[in-house]
Sequence to fold (252 residues):
Amino acid sequence: MQTFTCHIVDSDESQINTIKQFVDKDAEFVIKKTSITCKDAIKAIRLEKPDLLIIDFKMSSFGDPEITEDVDAYDIPAVIVISKIEQFEHDTPGILTTDYLIKPFDEKRVLFSLKRAKTAIKNKKPESLINRVTDLINQLNEKNKSYLKRISVKKNDKIFFIETEEIDYIETAGNYLKIYFNGKSQLIRETLTNLISQLDPELFYRIHRTTLVNVKKVQEFQSYYHGDYIVIMKNGAKLSMSRNYKDILNKI
Fold:
């Protein structure tokens, strides 16, 4: 189990003890130190690098640039500020404030704050940033990906092309695929899985393990038995859509 370190800063030792009791309820947090001065808080950030700082508003001098001076961005802790209601709108520049604990607070409210803090801590870790950048790059690559514009078909001694945007739907036929387009049909030797990987996913959707449709050629969806649907195509064809593929309804 992953654990996070916590440092509590408050001039009121009785309040420190109360918070300690609540924090101890969350097994993912380990209290490394408590202190009664802001100076100790600054030292903790620089030397101990806690994941979370719980500090009373009156103790925080977060406006001072010294608190983050010479501190790596990944070492700046998440912060939960304890405050009175009239202090709630105050901001703590330069620090990742995840929540305000407004006095009086109870165990449930503290545990909720800790949950928010864990999310903030995980999101600022280098591996999390790398994952988010990787996801963004993948999304950009997907958007810029060049999809098949037409399908070549060899028939006798000739080769002709089927424009993908003219395709109504495609069905499996043994070791072949049957492509329906412009009132005609054509068999090609290809697998549905391989062809799907080359077609624009914003245009072509699987409605059954054996059927792929061009959403621009769909007229309507009609509910059928047990969550299945009948897909009415603009060319008049009626196709079965399995309930396992009904996510298409949320995408078009």
